[in-house]
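Exercise 7.
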Amino acid sequence: MDEHTEDLAVGRLVTDKGEEIGSAVLIAPSVILTAGHCMQDGDIAEFVTGCERYKIAAYRLHPLFKVQQHIFMDLAIAVLDRPCCVEPIRFLNTETNRYEQGEPLTVIGFGGGYKRHSHPEVFTYYGTLIEDPTSFKFLPLEGTVYFGDSGGAVLDGKGVLVGVVSSLGYSKGHIYENSATRLDLASEWVKNTTLELSGVPLEVAL
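Solution. The predicted structure, written as tokens, is:
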């Protein structure tokens, strides 16, 4: 993955102690989308993109974030203290979006403390497993997404946001099962929560 990119719509999440713990995606002028597990402790204070810092004014975990103490729908939305000057990433349209196995994907996040934008053809869509219906897997499975990428953007071949980096998983010390939370299943919640928190409707891709 390339450590240099101009995709400022993906930024860092910083705690009230100044620790960088994950990534988030700007989906509306003052609204970011991220993984729920990045926000669950309630200590995220800022969204940082480029040289700009924005305070988190409020946030919401997905109502099905945890089911019987297990993470199920790993999403959260936060509203910033002011609109961001960056162009938001286009959100998927459930009426036109279709997943196809082998489709190229782009991943953008802050794994390892650097802004990382995957090169073309590095990642491809694999599919959803029966035991994990709210996520999709993408290839290759091992050693390509790291801590800090959580909450980052997963884009389809048209540059549309189709997933949020969720879990990495470990097997004998090795990272495996690159996973993203499916946004097609959470589209209505994202739209409604964006409007409720910011007063601005979410624009979706054509």
